[in-house]
Write a structure and sequence with these properties.
The chain folds into two domains: about 5-75, Ribosomal Protein L15, Chain: K, domain 2; about 85-290, Four Helix Bundle (Hemerythrin (Met), subunit A). Helix content is about 45%, strand content about 15%. It is built from ten helices and ten strands.
Length: about 300
């Protein structure tokens, strides 16, 4: 399994040579494809060969394309190579509604708990206590919408005067980092033989990655802490929404941050793989108890 996150931000031509990615531009390089986990293209002046794209897919490398605002807008995923894709897809299609709702309950509960832990890290203990209480009240399918109530408290506290949907630097940094993590979740969903568009809770007909939007939820607080603790000190002007090239480069390191699953520490990239594989097990077992979700702990 690859471990490198490679970002191409300037004019370059990418090609394949003897199992390696060859980069020719202002700076040239040659990297073994087997070492690459994610390739991010953040320039319209990049060209690449079809032969390279095929080899990247063969090695299960996620290729992310960014738009003119440097926001990830496209993900090139390999067609599923899972040996039991038909079986996994069939189980997913036949999943009962109670199981879907119970899985979503577990996801929302862990998301809120992680948000509470992040607030505790930043010494907002009173609001963290409110979130812990909300987490205990999450019902099957989150029918009482505890996720939304918790989010309002969480972001109003975490970002102070900057609300979640204002065009601030914080929003730009969070959305960029969320997109990186979401792309990796989508990659693992496809590689496990699951249907990416068939979500547990999210169900938009226009969204090809509803399931990724379900599974990313408990990881969002980990991203929030990463952005505020690793990047935010450089940006005291909340009205500036622009991400610098250095911001984008540092954001890629979110995949090397860590999460706790069943008492063990994993990088975010490995934790995501565990979460997705455990979802397949939970569907097979018909039990939400098999789902392994990340815990934030600092």
């Amino acid at each position: 399994m690859g471990w490198r996150v490679v970002a191409i931000e300037n004019q370059a031509h990418l090609s394949l040579e003897q199992g390696s990615l060859v980069i020719k531009g202002d700076k040239s390089a040659k990297l073994p494809i087997e070492d690459i986990d994610t390739l991010l293209i953040d320039s319209y002046a990049v060209t690449m060969t079809a032969n390279l794209l095929g080899e990247l897919a063969t090695h299960n490398v996620t290729t992310i394309i960014c738009d003119h605002q440097h926001t990830p807008c496209s993900v090139i995923e390999p067609l599923s190579q899972h040996s039991r894709q038909a079986k996994v897809s069939r189980m997913q299609l036949e999943m009962s509604q109670p199981l879907r709702k119970n899985l979503w309950q577990a996801i929302v509960k862990q998301k809120i708990i992680n948000q509470a832990q992040v607030l505790t890290t930043f010494r907002h203990t009173e609001q963290a206590g409110q979130l812990i209480k909300l987490a205990t009240e999450v019902r099957s399918g989150d029918t009482t919408n505890r996720e939304s109530i918790a989010a309002r408290i969480y972001f109003d506290t975490l970002l102070a005067d900057a609300t979640r949907r204002q065009p601030t630097w914080y929003n730009s940094a969070l959305n960029y980092s969320y997109a990186i993590v979401r792309s990796l979740v989508a990659r693992h969903i496809a590689s496990r033989g699951l249907i990416p568009s068939l979500g547990l809770f999210h169900h938009s007909e226009l969204n090809s990655f509803n399931l990724a939007d379900d599974l990313i939820e408990p990881y969002r607080a980990i991203v929030d802490h990463f952005v505020l603790s690793k990047l935010a000190d450089q940006h005291l002007d909340l009205s500036d929404s622009r991400l610098t090239k250095e911001d984008r480069r540092l954001s890629l390191d979110i995949l090397n941050d860590y999460a706790i699953i069943k008492g063990k520490q994993f990088t975010v990239r490995d934790a995501i793989d565990l979460t997705v594989s455990s979802l397949v097990q939970a569907i097979s077992d018909k039990s939400p108890d098999s789902l392994q979700l990340p815990k934030f702990n600092r």
